[in-house]
Amino acid sequence: MADAAKYRYPGPPEFEDTPGDRQRFFGRSSEINTVSELVVASRLLVVYGNSGLGKSSLLKAGVFPKLRGEGLLPIRVRLDRDRTVSDLLRDACQDAARDTSREMEVDYTPGAGGTVWEFFKTVMFWHGDSLLIPVLVFDQFEEIFTLADAAWRKAFAREIGPLVSGNARQPSEKS
């Protein structure tokens, strides 16, 4: 009964990255433009706020389509502490290419190498003769701190750190 009470008022469903939801999602042009510009200008951007404010809707129905129009490919990653970071990202890339291909043709060539850095240096997403730039979007990122153990967080930082810093040098095991 406690679980039923917890979800008694789940709120409205979030907008998705679908043609219908994009058409119904309006009135946030300023926020869409601001977030899109910050994504293009930054290596790391954190969008945060209280639950239910519409962050996911803003991203999926507003920012993602705008980024695709600018030659970027948003790749939504849902953290799962039971899987390796590398496996999560590889699967998310494949899913993004498949899901996006429903509306725009995306040819996906998986990356190679043993690290996330190597994978993203070799992965390719083509739309016609344009090479799309992947943008990782970590959904529910706070779960890395609330649900994942220290070993998983350390592995995550070791894999993602070089992407965020732009430095392929792997940190030593002591760090």
Write a short abstract of this structure.
The protein has helices at residues 2-6, 19-24, 29-41, 55-69, 85-100, 116-122, 143-146, 150-165; strands at residues 72-78, 107-109, 124-127, 130-139. It has 175 residues and is α+β, with helices and mostly antiparallel strands. It has two domains: 9-70, no CATH class; 73-167, no CATH class.
Q: How would you explain this protein's 3D organization?
A:
The protein has 175 residues and is an alpha+beta fold. Helix content is 47%, strand content 14%. The chain has helices at 2-6, 19-24, 29-41, 55-69, 85-100, 116-122, 143-146, 150-165; strands spanning 72-78, 107-109, 124-127, 130-139. Strands 1-4-3-2 form a four-stranded mixed sheet. Helix 3 (29-41) crosses helix 4. It starts with a helix and ends in a 10-residue tail after the last helix.
